[in-house]
From TrEMBL:
<feature type="domain" description="EAL">
    <location>
        <begin position="24"/>
        <end position="278"/>
    </location>
</feature>
<protein>
    <submittedName>
        <fullName>EAL domain-containing protein</fullName>
    </submittedName>
</protein>
Length: 279
């Protein structure tokens, strides 16, 4: 890490800009063939019931390994796929793969748990989204109550009829809905009830602040208390240690997820006997 002075700033900045543009163009181009070339896969991270210690759900997280670009993190390529519209195609693949995986786990006789799938606002706004979900559930044979869709707070700013109607129809289908990264946007909890969300996931930045108590404790316990008053479940993301877990248990947080339990892993590497590490 070197500090840059004067005219160097400009040079560095423009080189960085060029690199970013080239990288973005390459991502956009290669992403189009990523599914066909089998470069995408899903990893799964457990969500643990903090009262019973049992496995409540697995969150599906997309991974992309490209021969020239290498491993590209979802935080890099998902926003680009949203801009290009490719997310609709990718998101469908994710949903189908995740639902099929859970059905396989169910058929193998594992105790019941849900699968949580991240859904981009662009996908949810697409007029065929609900029909796609319905079709995938039918094709994979997964019962709707085992599927939970995670959307970010930005969806609530989209106060459109399409979004409201889609959320309503998903609810009627029996699919559950959660708000991801809760607390980072501008949503008030009253919206959650209005849109009938089942759960909120407290953003991991607040969980990270618990230890040093940079307001993390105050924010976390307020979210839990308010959500519970509204009859909404709470999941804490990014639990990395016993201190954080202990605090969340005291505050009666319902479920937790994080490296403390397990990182996301490919389905084939999940050993249900010894993993996830539960309490
Ligand atoms: P997210 O949905 O909030 O997922 C949680 C992220 O936190 C994941 O990063 C996960 O690997 C990471 N994480 C889990 N536990 C811990 C922990 O204890 N400490 C820390 N520091 N991190 C932890 P990942 O897999 O890189 O995904 C990043 C984001 O990309 C996701 O955030 C989600 O917004 C998006 N994403 C991932 N897969 C998909 C997908 O299939 N579709 C869409 N639309 N978005 C996706
Ligand atoms: Mg998520
Ligand atoms: Mg999150
Ligand atoms: Mg996130």
């Amino acid at each position: 890490f070197t500090k840059k002075h004067g005219s160097n700033d400009y040079t560095v900045y423009s080189e960085e800009l060029d690199f970013k543009t080239i990288y973005k163009v390459a991502i956009e181009k290669d992403l189009k063939s990523a599914i066909a070339k089998k470069e995408l896969c899903l990893h799964y991270q457990p969500i643990v019931n903090l009262k019973t210690g049992t496995l409540a759900a697995m969150e599906a997280l997309i991974r992309w390994d490209n021969p020239t670009l290498g491993f590209v993190p979802p935080d890099n390529f998902i926003p680009i796929s949203e801009e290009s519209g490719e997310i609709v195609h990718i998101g469908k693949w994710v949903l189908e793969t995740a639902c099929r995986q859970l059905k396989d786990w169910q058929d193998a006789g594992h105790p019941p748990f849900k699968v949580c799938v991240n859904i981009s606002t662009i996908q949810l706004k697409h007029p065929h989204f609900v029909a796609t979900v319905q079709h995938i559930l039918k094709a994979t044979g997964l019962a709707p109550r085992w599927l939970e869709l995670e959307v970010t707070e930005s969806i609530l700013m989209e106060n459109t009829e399409v979004v409201k109607e889609s959320l309503q129809r998903l609810k009627e289908l029996g699919v559950s809905m959660s708000i991801d990264d809760f607390g980072t946007g501008y949503t008030s909890l009253s919206y959650l009830r209005q849109f009938a969300f089942d759960r909120v996931k407290i953003d991991r930045s607040f969980i990270g602040d618990i230890e040093e108590d940079l307001n993390g404790k105050a924010i976390t316990s307020s979210i839990i208390a308010l959500a519970h008053k509204l009859n909404i479940g709470v999941i804490a993301e990014g639990i990395e240690n016993q201190d954080q877990l202990g605090f969340l248990e005291e505050e009666l947080c319902d479920e937790g997820q994080g490296y403390y339990f397990s990182p996301p892993k490919p389905a084939a590497q999940i050993d249900f006997q010894t993993w996830p590490k539960i309490k």
